[in-house]
Design a protein that fits this description.
By secondary structure, this protein is mostly helical. The chain has 4 helices and no strands.
């Protein structure tokens, strides 16, 4: 039975690494495509930079996940904050006041969530962080 557990763990680890490699390759391709669009338009907009930041956060998440085999909950929250900021920048002219209010409230909730997670990590660190 112990051999089956080891084989199962090896298969899961291989799938995990394969998934991380696929995510990295897809993210690098997306970065290149975005850079190519900027070069083609001969213009860099704030929304382009925010999209590149989202891609960099994804790569950072993959790196941390690969190193520690765990995903800090803050990084997806950071990605959500930047994505909402980008959404506001791209569609601010078409958004009605209630949509803006909802997005603003969502950003506030996400910012508070980051604060709570950071505060909790400071006061109650993981065993390996002590």
């Amino acid at each position: 039975m112990k051999d089956h557990n080891n084989v199962f763990k090896l298969i899961l680890k291989a799938l995990e690494v394969t998934g991380l490699i696929i995510i990295c390759i897809a993210t690098v391709i997306a970065i290149w495509q975005e850079v190519w669009v900027m070069i083609d338009h001969k213009k860099v907009a704030l929304s382009d930079l925010l999209l590149l930041f989202i891609y960099m956060e994804v790569l950072t998440m993959v790196g941390i996940y690969y190193q520690k085999s765990m995903l800090p909950v803050r990084f997806p929250i950071y990605i959500a904050i930047v994505a909402l900021a980008r959404y506001i920048i791209l569609g601010s002219k078409e958004l009605d006041p209630w949509d803006m209010f909802g997005i603003g409230a969502t950003l506030l909730v996400l910012a508070v969530a980051v604060f709570i997670v950071r505060w909790g990590h400071t006061w109650y660190p993981y065993e390996e962080d002590k």
